[in-house]
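Moderator note: this is an archived Q&A kept for reference. The question asked for a predicted structure of one protein chain; the sequence and the answer are reproduced below.
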Amino acid sequence: MHVIFNHGKESGPWGTKIKRLAEVAQKLGCSIESLDYEGEYDADQRVKQLQAHVHGCSSGPLLLVGSSMGGYVATAVAGATECSGLFVMAPAYYLGGYTNLDNLNLSCPVSIVHGWRDDVVPVENSWRFAQPMNADLHIVNDDHRLVDTLDHTAAIFERFLKDIMAGEQYGRV
């Protein structure tokens, strides 16, 4: 499994959440990378960057991970490419961008973690997206950064990744 991390608007490619989840992925034998979008504040330009990167990627099954704006970016690309799973944290859904999230057709499992106290992206936005997608939605007692519940988020990610990898092994995904 190859895991590609996508950071948020104000963070960098190896921020706190990405480092922690990357440790989990590596422990499970995944290859990892985190794209650097620093200085690019247009979400749709980031989508184009990730699409180009994924198109040139030949690392086998792919899992896209994103936080905040990176969650929107990973979701937009997951809807336009073949991937084994999508894991997003406090995704910046319905805050702009060209991708019509209500018409997106995802064929992979989706897991969303969002904080009740998020004052950047309303938790209702994740609820709105999760329901028609039949996504797993984990609402935690945290804010937008999700640092207070990082261990819990890492445990959710580990379970999600293990399930995806088991499905790949048995041809179910």
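Archived answer notes: The chain has one domain: 2-169.
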